[in-house]
Design goal:
The complex is a heterodimer of chains A (about 240) and B (about 110). Chain A has eight helices and no strands. Chain A is mainly α and about 240 residues long. Classes of the chains: A mainly alpha (about 240), B mainly alpha (about 110). Chains A and B meet through helix 1, helix 2, helix 3, helix 4 and helix 8 of A and helix 1 of B.
Chain lengths: ~240, ~110
C-alpha cells in the first residue's frame, strides 16, 4: 500500500515537472529575461506605496508555488503589454515635463512683463499727476493775470489816446526829427488801429488766444513806449 | 533512503520552475507599481502645467493691458508736457506784460499830469 502511494506521488511529480519544463523552455526566448530584470525593476520601485495603481490593486501576490499554476504565456503577454504601457506613459510624462518647462519660462516672462507694465503705468501716472498739478498752478496764475493783461491792453490804448494830441503835434511839428526816429503818421495810425483791435479781442477773451494776445499787447506796449520816447526826445531837441 | 533521494531529485526542478514563475510575477507587479508611479507623476505634472498655462495667459493679458495703459499714459504725459511748456512760455509773457503794464501805467499817469 505504501509503495502504491509513493508511486502515485512520484508520478504526479513527474507529470508536473514535465509540464513545467515545456513552459520554462518557452520563456527563454520571450521578453522576460530572467531574474536580473526583476531585480532591477523591483529596486526602482518604492515599497508598498503604489499598490493602488491602475493595474489590479486588489490582486494578491501569489506565492512561488501557487503561481506555478498561472499560464506562462498569459503572464508573458501581460508583462509585454505592461512594458509597452510603461514606455508610452514615460514618454507622455517626458513630453509633459518639457511642456511644463516651456510654459514655466513663458509664464514667468509674461508675468514679469505685466509687473514691469504695472510699475511703468504707476510711474507715468505719478508723473502725469505732477504735471497736471504744475499745469493747474500755472493756469490759475495765468487766469489771475488775465485781468492784468486786459488792463495792460487798456493801459496801452489809454496812453495812446491820452497822448494822442501830443503825438499828433509832435509828428506834424517835428516831422523830420520823428522820421529820423522811425515814426510817421501812417505808422502811428497803424499802431492805434492795432491797439483798438487788441482791445476788441480782449473783450471776448478766449483762453486759447491768450498767448497771441499777450504777445500783441507786448508789441503794442513796446511800440507805444518807443513812440512816446521819440516825441519826448524830439520836443527836447527842439 | 532510496525513496528520499528519488523524491529530492524529482522536487528540485519543480521548485526551480516555481521560482522562475515567482520572479516573473514579481516583475509584473513591479511594472504595475512603476506604471502607477508614472501615472501619479503625470497627474502632478499636468496639474502644474495647468497652473503655468493659466499664469502665461494671465501674464499675456496683463502685459497687453498694462502696455496699452502705459502707452495711453505716455501719450497723455507728452501732451501735458507740451501744455506745460506752452503755459510756462505764456506765464513768462504774462509776467513781461505785467511789468510793462506797470511801467505804462506810471508813464500814462505822468503824461496825464
Amino acid at each position: 500500500m505504501k509503495k502504491i502511494i509513493f508511486l502515485s506521488f512520484v508520478m504526479a511529480l513527474l507529470c508536473m515537472n514535465a509540464m513545467s519544463a515545456v513552459k520554462v523552455k518557452k520563456s527563454g526566448g520571450g521578453s522576460f529575461s530572467g531574474s536580473d530584470n526583476g531585480v532591477v525593476m523591483g529596486a526602482a520601485i518604492p515599497p508598498a506605496e503604489t499598490k493602488s495603481g491602475t493595474f489590479g490593486s486588489t490582486e494578491t501576490k501569489s506565492s512561488g508555488l501557487s503561481a506555478g499554476a498561472q499560464s506562462f504565456d498569459s503572464l508573458q503577454a501581460e508583462i509585454a503589454e505592461l512594458e509597452a504601457t510603461l514606455a508610452e506613459k514615460q514618454a507622455g510624462l517626458e513630453a509633459c515635463a518639457q511642456k511644463n518647462q516651456n510654459f514655466k519660462v513663458a509664464g514667468i516672462a509674461a508675468l514679469s512683463l505685466t509687473g514691469a507694465g504695472v510699475a511703468g503705468t504707476v510711474y507715468l501716472n505719478q508723473k502725469n499727476k505732477k504735471l497736471n498739478e504744475e499745469n493747474d498752478k500755472l493756469i490759475a496764475n495765468a487766469e489771475g493775470k488775465l485781468s492784468d493783461l486786459k488792463e495792460n491792453g487798456n493801459g496801452v490804448y489809454a496812453v495812446l489816446q491820452k497822448s494822442d494830441s501830443r503825438v499828433s503835434a509832435a509828428l506834424k511839428d517835428n516831422e523830420g526829427c520823428m522820421k529820423n526816429k522811425g515814426w510817421t503818421e501812417t505808422k502811428y495810425e497803424k499802431l492805434k488801429g492795432d491797439a483798438e483791435r487788441l482791445l476788441q479781442k480782449l473783450s471776448s477773451t478766449n483762453n486759447n488766444e491768450d498767448i497771441t494776445q499777450i504777445n500783441e499787447a507786448k508789441r503794442i506796449s513796446d511800440e507805444t513806449y518807443k513812440l512816446l520816447s521819440a516825441t519826448e526826445k524830439c520836443e527836447k531837441e527842439e | 533512503m532510496k525513496y528520499l533521494t528519488v523524491l529530492f531529485v524529482l522536487l528540485v526542478p519543480a521548485v526551480s520552475v516555481a521560482e522562475d514563475l515567482s520572479e516573473m510575477i514579481a516583475y509584473r507587479d513591479a511594472l504595475k507599481e512603476e506604471i502607477a508611479a508614472v501615472d501619479a507623476e503625470t497627474k502632478r505634472c499636468e496639474k502644474t502645467l495647468k497652473g503655468w498655462k493659466a499664469a502665461t495667459i494671465i501674464g499675456a493679458v496683463g502685459t497687453v493691458a498694462t502696455g496699452a495703459t502705459a502707452f495711453m499714459q505716455y501719450k497723455g504725459l507728452k501732451k501735458n508736457q507740451e501744455t506745460l511748456d506752452e503755459n510756462k512760455a505764456s506765464a513768462k509773457v504774462v509776467d513781461s506784460a505785467s511789468k510793462l503794464n506797470e511801467k505804462f501805467n506810471s508813464f500814462g499817469k505822468s503824461e496825464a499830469k
